[in-house]
Amino acid sequence: MNGSPSLSRLDKHGPVGLVHVDAHSDTNDLMFGERVTHGTPFRRAVEEGLLDCKRVVQIGLRGPGYTANDFDWPEKQGFRLVMAHECWHKSLEPLMAEVRQQMGNGPVYISFDIDGLDPAFAPGTGTPEVGGLTVMQGLEIVRGCRGMNIVGGDLVEVSPPYDTTGTTALTGANLLFEMLCVLPGVHYSS
User: What count of other Cβ atoms lies within 10 Å of the Cβ of residue 6?
Assistant: First the structure.
């Protein structure tokens, strides 16, 4: 045991499930020649044994990507990919019922990249992709995690220099509040 943070989390929870909202899969091997970037974390997490690949769902994926096979690698690992166009014009409550079943009672991490939302709702990010989720769908996803064994979460890629109106920061803060409300043992009615 070398005391690294990932190993101590692995000892505590074992491999975790992942609910990942993003325009991009973040599973590249290299990005701009680097192994550790904002486009590679879930490839590294799989390599370190941190993810239970059969309990990983990525929601809102779209855009041209960085390589031609951006979505091939995660599918080969067993990830469930939900493309953004599969979410258009509908509620995501039924999807989240399926995701709760997929996650079971095991530990789950929520990762919400703000570019999972359409830039009409969250323009303040460095990697905007049109055709994304609505804010209401983002709320449905996070609220749909209620009852899961959530052990952690994050909201990433809000960029203040691009967020001239503050809309993205406000949306991100509200999504983080919603994440806190779905933690086990938290009872809040919104």
Answer: 13
